[in-house]
Amino acid sequence: MPLFLDPLKRNITMQSNRKHLMLAGVLAAVLSTLSISSFAGSGENCHGPARGEHASHRGHGPDGKGPQGAFWQHKMDKLKMTPEQQAQAKQIFEKQRAAQEKNREAMRETQQALYAASRTKDFDRSRVEQLANDQARLRAQMTVARAEAMHQFFAVLTEEQKQQMQQWREKRKPVDKAPTAS
Hints:
- There is one protein chain.
- Helix 3 packs antiparallel against helix 4.
- The protein has a domain at 59-169.
- The longest helix is centred in the middle third of the chain and has 35 residues, at 83-117.
- 70% of the residues lie in helices and 0% in strands.
- It has 5 helices and no strands.
- It is mainly α and 182 residues long.
- One of its GO terms (molecular function) is unfolded protein binding.
- It is found in: Periplasm.
- Residues 43-70, 160-182 are annotated as: Disordered.
- Keywords: Coiled coil, Periplasm, Signal.
C-alpha cells in the first residue's frame, strides 16, 4: 500500500520528519551561537577602547561615565540647563551613586548567600527568609534613594524644564500606566 494511503505509516513518517527538523533547528541555534561568540573574540585586537573602558563596562552617573551618564548628559543638554544647574545635578547624582554602591554591594552579597543557602544539604527556611527580607529592605532603600535624587534634581529645574521632562515622559509612557503625581 502506498505511503499516502496508509495513515499509520504517514503518521510515523511525519513524526520522524518533525524530530529531524527539531534536531536541525537546535543544531543550527547552537552553531550560530558558537560562531557569534567566536567571532566576537577576546577584544585583544579591538581598535576601540581598552577592556573595561567600553561604556557598558564603566560606572553609571551624570558625569558621562557609562550609559546612564551619557543619557543624563544628553538630557541636560536638551533641557538647556545652565552650567550651575548641571553642576548641581551632577553633584546630586554623584552623591546618590556613591550611596547606592554600598547597597549594590550588599545586594550582591545577599544574592550570593541566597544562592549558597538554596544549595545546602539541609535547607534553612528561616535563613532564606532573613536573606530575602534583607534583599527587600535593600531594594526599598535603593528605590527611596533614587526617588529622593530625582526629587532633588527636579528642584533644580525651571518650570519650563520640568514641563519638557513631563512631555518626554508622556511621550514614552504606555497608555495603561498610571499617571504620575505632579
